[in-house]
Amino acid sequence: MFYNQDLALRFPKGKFAMWSVYSFTGASILASIVFSLLLFLSIDDDPVMQLLFGGLAVIFELGKFFAWYEVGERHARRNYPGMLSALGFYLVLAAISIGGSVGGINSATNKAQEHVNVQQSKVNAYNMQIQAIDEQIKLNNVAAEKYIQMERIATGVTRIQKENNKLRHEQQALAMERDNLPVVSQGSVIGLIDSLASFLNIQASTAQLGLVVFLSVLLDFFAAFFVGLIGEENRFRHQFHNMKPLTIEGFSPAESKAPELLSHFDEGDIVNEDEKTPYEQVLLALSLNRVNCSKRAVSKYLNFSTDEVDEIFKRLFDEGIVSKKANNHFQWHGVAKAEIEAV
Asked: What is the mean predicted confidence (pLDDT) over 203-210?
């Protein structure tokens, strides 16, 4: 390994972090499947068709996330045509999934709204009966005034008063029945929809549609993010374990031994390096492939300052020993063997 190669910027995630990631991923995928099932199962009441449509929903959901995982895998392998084909497949399945989730969430929200509407209809029916009794009492009072004007209090007014008392008792009984009805539980989602409709000054149905679309897309992206995270972590773990980097935990002084020289190093060169000029040391290190042809690598290997390395590389460039590539990286052209021996 050359000295300019950087160690891993991080270590693999621990068990707790990975269990958290897998839990979030499983929960989001399960929620997406459930919402899609709510729509697909409502297409037909036949149990056989429900089984078929339910299986179709599960296949679409799982296939969608596998396609997204494959997008990351092909991108990591730099197989861009394959990545685009997998991405197109994912987008088709994602559109179907989001549509199913929208329908499922919308269906569940409509059922909750229907329950609220039924309870509210019962309350409205009692209110209408109570209001009708109020109207009847008002009409009876008008008739009582006419009886008073006709001086028929004993016959007409007394009868109307008895009728009004009966109507008031009936009205009170209806009011008690109305008040004893179970309290209508609006639910947080319905309350949120009503609040959005009031805030945006739109109809409740429009607010409901916008909310379910937002939740469906968010759920899909949430699951896709964690699926991509799992794929990236698996690739990183594989690369990390293949690199087998030296860590402090893995170093044991008892097992340490004297460092051995690489096979292509000449011990005589190491002894005489201190007597050479910085330019000669750089030329020798590059000629013997001890270090990559880059300022950073040379600076790390020989412990030279940045200014020294800049000056040396300028001299190498002027002498045609190195050149600059299109990406501004240096390319080593080498020197004749006689020159290396002279150094």
From this structure: 78
Judge whether residue 108 has pLDDT over 70.
no
Structure tokens at 101: 């989730």
By the 8 A CB rule, do 284 and 269 touch? Answer: yes
pTM of structure: 0.45
- Contact (CB, 8 A) for 101 and 35: yes
Q: Give 104's pLDDT tier (boundaries 50, 70, 90).
A: low
> What spatial distance separates the first Cα and last Cα of the chain, rounded to whole Å?
25
Asked if residue 99 lies in contact with residue 61, where contact means CB atoms within 8 angstroms, the answer is no
Spatial separation of the C-alpha atoms in residues 32 and 98, rounded to whole Å: 8
pLDDT at 142: 80
271: pLDDT strictly greater than 50: no
φ, ψ (nearest 5 deg) of residue 38? -60, -35
Q: What's the rounded Cα separation, in Å, for the pair 157 and 147?
A: 6
Q: Which residues, at least 6 apart from 64, have a Cβ–Cβ distance to it below 8 Å?
A: 90, 93, 94, 96, 97
More confident: 110 or 125 = 125
**Residue 28 to residue 342: CA distance in whole angstroms:** 69
- Residue 6 predicted with pLDDT over 50: no
**Separation between Cα atoms, residue 48 and residue 36, nearest integer Å:** 17
Long-range residue pairs from 54-58, CB within 8 A, at least 24 positions apart, any chain: 57/33, 57/100, 58/33
Cβ distance 208 to 109 under 8 Å?
yes
Q: List the one residue out of 118, 96, 126, 116 whose CA is nearest residue 35.
A: 96
**183 pLDDT exceeds 50?**
yes
Please give the radius of gyration of the chain, using alpha carbons only, rounded to the nearest integer.
41
Lowest mean pLDDT among 105-109, 259-263, 332-336: 259-263
Alpha-carbon distance 96 to 89, whole Å?
11
What gap in Å lies between CA 301 and CA 160, rounded to an integer? 113
The token pair that represents 38 in the structure block: 């709510």
Closest by CA to 21, choosing from 240, 231, 241, 236, is: 231
Using CA atoms, how far residue 142 sits from 138, 158, 170, in Å, is 6, 14, 20
